[in-house]
Structure formats: C-alpha cells, structure tokens
Amino acid sequence: MSQDELQTFGLLEIEKLLQSNGKSLRNYAGMPVPNKSLYDTVSLTHEHDANVSKLNEEQRVVYDKIIDCVSNKRHGFFFVYGFGGTGKTFLYRVLSAKLRSEKNIVINVASSGIASLLLPGGKTAHSMFNIPVEITEDTVCRIKKDSPKAEVFRIADLIIWDEAPMTNKLAFEALDRTLWDIMVSVSDRNKDLPFGGKVVVLGGDFRQVLPIIPKGSCAEIVIASINSSVLWKYCEVLRLTKNMRLAIGSEQSTAQELRLFSDWILQIGEGHCGTVVNEKLFVDIPSDLIIPVLENPVEDIVNTIYPNLVQNFRDPSFFQDRAILASTVDNVEEINNYIVDLLPGEEKNYLSADSICGSDAYSDVDVDWITVEFLNQIRCSGPPNHLLKLKIGVPIILLRNIDPAGGLCNGTRLVVRDLGTNIIGADIVSGSNVGDKVFITRMSMIPSDTVIPFKFQRRQFPVSLSFAMTINKSQGQTLSMVGLFLHRPVFSHGQLYVALSRVRNRNGLKILLCDEGLDDAGRTENVVFKEVFDKVKF
Ligand SMILES: Nc1ncnc2c1ncn2[C@@H]1O[C@H](COP(=O)(O)OP(=O)(O)OP(=O)(O)O)[C@@H](O)[C@H]1O
C-alpha cells in the first residue's frame, strides 16, 4: 500500500468511528478528510443490484415508496408492519445499499442492541439520538443544534428505526421535536411536517412485546405504544405478509410443516386461537410439545433442554443455541442457580458495590435509613444482582451495550472462559461476532426502575447467567432449542408469541406447563391486547 492509500485507509477508519458517534472529521478544523467515500460505493451498487430484483411484490412497493420520497426530497413517515421472517431486514439492507451507493446518508437504528446488529451500520436508537432514559411529554433529545450530530441529522436522507413497537411513543415524540428544531432552521416548510420533514421508516410487529410500563395496565401499555402517538396520524402503514424465511430453501413437505407451525404462532400472537374462560384467554398446547412433570419441574425442564449437562458442559457449542425461557425473574433465577450448582468446577462469587446516587434530595424517603445491606438486597430489572455466581464454561448474557460495533450489546450471549479478580474473559456465541474472545470489566449501573423511590448505583460485571432468561430478554434472539417454563403463565401482551417464535421449527420447542390453579394441564394463558391492533390502519 502506498503512503497515500495508507492515509486514506486510516482516515476512513477514524471517520467510521466518528460517524458511529454522530460526528465526522469535517467537524474538526484542520483535520484532513478522506478523499474517498466512507462507503465502498462500487460494492454497495453490486449488493443493491444483486438483491433488488429478488424483492417480492410487497417489499417492492415499500422500496419504491421510500426511494421515491428520498429521490424527490419529499417527506415521508412509514411503518413497515411484518412478523419475523417477512424480510424487513432484507428490505432495509437493499434500501441502505441503494441510497449509500448514491452518497445519500442513511441512519439505521433499532430499539434493542441485538436488532441493531442486523442493520448495516446500525446503532441503538437511544444512543444514536441521545434519548434520555427518563422521558416525559416535553422531553427533547440531548443534541445541541450546532453540534456535529445535529449536522448529521440535518443532512440525513433516511432514518430507519427497527423494532419500533417496543419503544415508548414518548421517545419518538422527543425525536420529532428535536428534528423539528434542527430542520426548521433550514426551511420554514418543515415546520408543519413530522420529524422536521425527514423520511422516517419505522418497522416491527405489534404482536411482540410492547413498551414496558412497570405494573402497567393494558390501557397504559396500549397508550404508550407508537400507534397511540399524535404522530401516528401522519404514518402510512405498509404491510409485509409473506414469510420469506419459509419461502426460500425448504423442501415442500418441510415448508408445509413450517407454515402450519408459523400460522399457529401468528394466531396466538393475534389472540385468534384458544378458549376464553372468566375473561381470560387460554391456548391448548399440543401434547407432543409438553414436557411431562415427573417430580421437580425445574429438574424436568433442565433434563429436556440440557440433556447430559455435566458431560456436554465442556462442548463450546452446547450453549450456543439453546435456552430456557420463563415469564418471571424469580423463575429464571431459580433455574440458573439450580444449573450452576450442578456443574463441576470452582465457583467464583462476585459481589457488587452499591451506593446511593449523588446528593439528590428525596423528600419522601429518609436516606439515612437506606443501608448498603438494604441496597444489596434490591433485585430490579436492568442491573445484575448483588451476588453473581459464575464458573468457567457457563453461558452468560450481557445486560448493557458495551461495544455494539464489536458485537457486545445488551442481549449478546457469551460463554465464560476466564474468571479473574477484576476481569472476565469470554467467547461470544451469538450475534455478529461469534467466536471473538472478549474481556468484560465491572461498570456502574443505575437502575431506571421507577418503582424504587430513590436512585442508587451498582458496580458489578454487566452480565447474568443465561441457561434461562426472561421472555422479554429473549426478544430478538434466534435459538434452535427452547424450553418454555410456564410455572407462572405469561402476564403481558406478546410474551407467549415472542417465546414461541424464538425457534425456527417445531422440533426445537418444548413447553413445561404447571400453572397452579389450572384444572386442565394442557393449556396456558395467553395475553393479547387486541386494542393495539385496532389502532393500526392500512
Ligand atoms: N426478497 C427476498 N429474497 C430472498 N431472500 C429474502 C428476501 N426477503 C427476505 N429474505 C431472506 O429471508 C430471511 C428472513 O428475512 P429477514 O431477516 O429480513 O426478515 P425480518 O422480517 O427482518 O425477520 P426478523 O424480524 O425475525 O429479523 C432472511 O434469510 C433473508 O435473507
């Protein structure tokens, strides 16, 4: 490589890092800029040309509408509504390749870290748009109008936001206000348009888990969804209904079997199958999917999903593609602790350092009363527990986005290889960087749990065991073997659908039902807030 090529290569790498943080070399006076486009326009053109002809009719309609808006500099707000496998990601990739090959700027984000890894140059929406964790009707994103990030949004041609239904509508409204503010200074014509006149494409599936509202009622959760937002009236819903995952590759008989399975899951997602008893919806589970309870339900599901655990435990691929899912954190912890105790090897216990945050005044809480021991006992969603029990060879899941570009985000699964005093070595087993060896250090985490009336921080490794995980945590994961532990039935919209749709075929699914109080053992409760579908207009 010549000196010039080397310099261009180095500058492009720096520019990529800067752009992933919403900045650019152009924002720093005196810095040289690469004399080539950040994207390899030739290979993007090839990628686009190879895939555009494969788009099915529905995908083509969406593609044409969006390209038309961007090419003619018209605003547009779309929702691409399709269940898993209908080719949303494929479509986003073709769109991004087309526009980037023509030097347009495309911002790809997703609500979760896992989904963002599937998008070209994807980031989580919260980090890309600096959306505050605590959000109200008046919130704006933390982006200054004269900042480099604002400049990127000013010139962006398309924003794609995947898995939109799981994000609170207030986050989209905050982005709308922020873009309005940025764009209105460019042209007055933007002042009456949503998102300041940008072309914005949201995507996802309303059958999946909706925004989390701690202890929220059906009405509260439906009202927090994007399709209850004031912005929704500007949105054009574009539907994808053809399952492309099944359409390609499978033999006829297998495809037929897969289709039946996929249709059953969709019916469950929409609340169209089952029996209503006392205003609750129950679904019959086919007997061949049920794990019989012999004595101890935990032992029964572990033996089914992790057969010959102690012998297979050293096989690096054993944990790669399987997990037990449960609806509550208590059940998840019970299963994880049961398994880790069974395994051979020295156990290492890591304790967190917990402390009350800053000098915030809590008018209704006596801070002196809050001891460290009390903080240690708090178990909340987000940070790990005070005590983390690990052994070499166990699977863990990340609880924070550490390095999304390196495949380390909230939801990435790993297998522990080294347990140091201040560092954990692990191999990535899911997502875009499978096989990479990484090191994880402790970090301070502040729970955003609004049920706790004060703020505290926990310094701990941002991981938990992942033999079992909550259904909500599994959204976005693809597994080949799933054991669904329904000791307590699901309690919120979309959970049963998400749990059942983690596997690609029926052979990979087993369900243990032991809902206390249910007379009929072959059934489980399903929760579907049908109101959320009523608000999707076509
Ligand atoms: N038009 C197409 N031609 C060929 N293959 C396609 C097409 N559309 C999608 N696929 C393939 O079908 C599979 C499912 O598509 P994709 O992952 O884009 O769906 P999705 O809607 O994003 O699903 P999920 O929500 O589960 O991620 C992928 O393997 C993808 O490459």
From TrEMBL:
Pfam families: PIF1, Pif1_2B_dom
Boundaries of every DNA helicase Pif1-like DEAD-box helicase domain copy: 54-275
Domain DNA helicase Pif1-like 2B residues, every copy: 373-418
Gene Ontology terms for molecular function: 5'-3' DNA helicase activity; ATP binding; hydrolase activity
Cofactor field: Mg(2+)
EC number(s) given by UniProt: 5.6.2.3
Reactions catalysed according to its record: ATP + H2O = ADP + phosphate + H(+)
Keywords: ATP-binding, DNA damage, DNA recombination, DNA repair, Helicase, Hydrolase, Nucleotide-binding
GO biological process, one term: telomere maintenance
Family according to the record: Belongs to the helicase family.
Protein name: ATP-dependent DNA helicase
Species this chain originates from: Arachis duranensis (Wild peanut)
